[in-house]
Amino acid sequence: MKKLTILSLLATLALANYIQYKPSEEFAKYFTTQSCSQVLDKFYYLNCYDYGYKGTKAVAYRLEADNLKGKQIKKRPRFEDDTNIPKKYRTTWSDYKNSGYDRGHTLSNASMRKTTQAQRSTFLMSNITPQNPQINQRVWNKIEKRERQLALKLGSLEVLNLINYDNNPQRIKNNIAIPSSYIKILKGDNFKECYQVPNHEVEDESIKSYKVNCGKF
């Protein structure tokens, strides 16, 4: 009994820096049974998962400045299958091997490194899509840094990532669809900024080139 009490206390402390994410009305419309095969509530974020694509269509979360300050976990955990999804629609780490695509985080590991539980939640395969290496490691990575900078500046920032697919998308192993582009919407008090990035090699790696009018979303 004592051991269970200690474990419960540790779990509570691990969550203490985070409040369960509840989407704003503007973002909530992307997480319905009409939009998603399954809405995954991961406490730190919501994920609109699609069985046909075997991947996410939308991920939303809130970044608080306090969770981006101070000590951050450096070591990356292993990727994990999402057992909340029926087995036939899940993806695995090995599906990406020799595919030519990175295991691209939709919600960045670096945005959730205050606690072990928060960081591990980003390594669920349901949060991963096949992402062009250049986009993942450079362009999208710069936009992810931008979201953290804004959260630190504004104190709090709500983020919506939308993943687009062609009507007949190309696929990697296990029938995982390859996204055609990624959208990131950054929303704070009296502030909004949006980006759309293709999922293929590009000549221009400046994120200014991928900034778009938020009115189109």
From TrEMBL:
Domain of life, source organism: Bacteria
Keyword annotations of the record: Endonuclease, Hydrolase, Nuclease
Protein name stated in the entry: DNA/RNA non-specific endonuclease
